[in-house]
Amino acid sequence: MHPYWITLSGHLGVGITARSEADALQLFELAFGSAEKIIRIEIIKDMNDLDQNHVVPNLGGANWLRRGIWFPQGHEHISN
Q: What whole-number distance in Å separates Cα of residue 9 and Cα of residue 31?
């Protein structure tokens, strides 16, 4: 499992933990539809790589080490 950050056009981005990049893209499409908005996808190597002023404070109770979407909040249920 790897945490990924997906950068989107016109949005801060999406944090997803998945088995692979393809798995992350599948979870993204389940939650948000088309992947056409994606600018880039990258593995997060360290929590400090995330936006410390907006992303980290808004993780809430999300577990970024478990498969699923952990940012933005409200999509934690999409992991099946």
A: 16
CB contact at 8 A, 78 and 15: no
Structure tokens at 27: 């979870």
AA letter at 76? E
**Residue 80 resides in a domain:** no
Residue 57 lies in a domain: yes
Contact 37, 28 (CB under 8 A): no
pLDDT in tens, the chain (80 residues): 999 999 998 888 999 999 999 999 999 999 988 777 899 999 999 888 888 888 888 776 667 778 999 888 877 777 75
Helices and strands of the chain, counted as H and E runs = 1, 4
- Domain-located, residue 79: no
Query: Does a structural domain hold residue 13?
Result: yes
Show the tokens assigned to 22: 């393809």
